[in-house]
Amino acid sequence: MDLFSLNGKTAIVTGALGLIGKKHCEALAQAGAHVVVADVNEEAAVAFAAQLGDNHLGIALDVTNKASVTKVRDAVVDKYGSIDILVNNAAINDMFENPAMAKELSAFENYPLDAFQKSIDVNITGVFLCSQIFGAIMAAQNSGSIINVASTYGMVGPDQSIYRNECGEQTFYKSAAYPVTKGAVINFTRFLASYWGNQGVRVNTLSPGGVENNQNEFFITNYSAKTLLGRMAQANDYQGALIFLASEASAYMTGANLVIDGGWTAI
Length: 267
Known about the structure:
InterPro entries: NAD(P)-bd_dom_sf (IPR036291), Sc_DH/Rdtase_CS (IPR020904), SDR_fam (IPR002347). The chain is α/β, with parallel strands linked by helices.
């Protein structure tokens, strides 16, 4: 089991306070890593880092801002001396504040340009900046693992039918922004893997499926029916895959897309 040990390694998780982000942090800490809990909410990031145990760091990070990313890099290197693992987890997944307007606003014909641009800024530019600034440290030390979190929707088009209610009415549409940006992340992984492979930096994608998180039962049933395992994911279902990609257990793996979706994309 030493292959999965992260003792002495430093791991940065962006978007660390999200549902899956917290589980990523917990898994990395349990595997022995020093975890940098990076999120826009500094107070909450500091508090969550303290919950993980000793020698973890909570810090504010805006992945779209180069100065913010650089500041985090300097703080992490100053505290730990290296950056060994980067989990590019921060992302926007459309939420519509007014349910009555969700269908109209999410329809492709009406989808706001500023919402599309915001997803590009976080989901693509954020991954670019964090990989560039944190990854350069890994390249200089000739070792490291970058894990880009994408989605099943980075590989297949959304099934809009699962967003209908019990009466068969479309409640909203999965917008173009999330599939487009997550598809870009998958190919960006291939670029980075080929660019830094000769410097010992491995870059892989983790593509999760949908996580059960207080959705209505009708949606959960519809989603689950599309998976071979007959259920949505639990938030901790990705922890094993994450540690595999972060550790020496995947030492000969780079440029790959590890799909953990209960079989959604298998048929």
